[in-house]
Structure prediction request, 284 residues.
Amino acid sequence: METKQLGTTEQDLALAGELLRQGQLVAFPTETVYGLGADALNETAVAQIYAAKGRPSDNPLIVHVAEKKDIAPLVREIPEKAKKLFDRFFPGPLTVILPKSDKIGKVVSGGLDTVAVRMPENPVAHRLLQLAGVPVAAPSANTSGLPSPTRAKYVQEDMNGKIAAIVDGGDCAYGVESTVITLATPTPTLLRPGAVTKEMLEAEIGPIAVAPAVLEKMADGETAASPGMKYKHYAPKAQVILVNGDSAAYAAFVNSQPGCYALCYEEDRVTVPKVPYGKATDDL
Prediction:
């Protein structure tokens, strides 16, 4: 398959929208990370997401919409707390889980009776969703388990030949996935932390719980209510070694290993090979 490399012109975004309506996969930028999108109402198209990523089928997807009015057909009802969150944080890096309507199939929901909805604030994503005219299911545009891509070139390195198109909209603003909260439980519960914090959510809807999986590994056989809860994520390709010891022992170990670099803060002042953290060195 030839993967089209698209920009952000109206013509390119219209083509990307047409590909989505045709049941193809399109990677596109959001304010969080690049997403791998498919028509959320087309179960065959959505199944291709799982195949392209090597994603477990019980890992639910987030459905992206262009406007708040697009949410109502996807859910059974919109409770008052959801309306408050939509008014305060949509568009933005927040995903809200609600009981799903019959329009949403089990492939999108990972077999659950709920659906995760989000309205991105990235202008490229917003215009693409408008032009597509369909809700778009989209996890991060990478092989499952690897770090989520924040640039189109990272998507190309991983997904070229597997998907129909990549929309290059530049760097993502946040670089980490959206916060996820479920309102499908008796107490609103934070399932995945992100740019919208627990404190920000509680300021709008009152006290919320935090899912145990936020802080520790899920129990075997437990069902994931949200992406990012159950399976390995943000795993680098390089070997990572945790060294217990003081600064001198740490420096001695790193310096004794050819090709080994430190992951540390500048104030640690450890005399070892290191690469500064940040976008300037992302391509190294």
In short: The chain has a mean pLDDT of 89. The chain is about 25% helix and 15% strand. Helices lie at 10-21, 43-53, 80-89, 106-109, 123-132, 152-159, 198-205, 247-256. The longest helix spans residues 10-21.
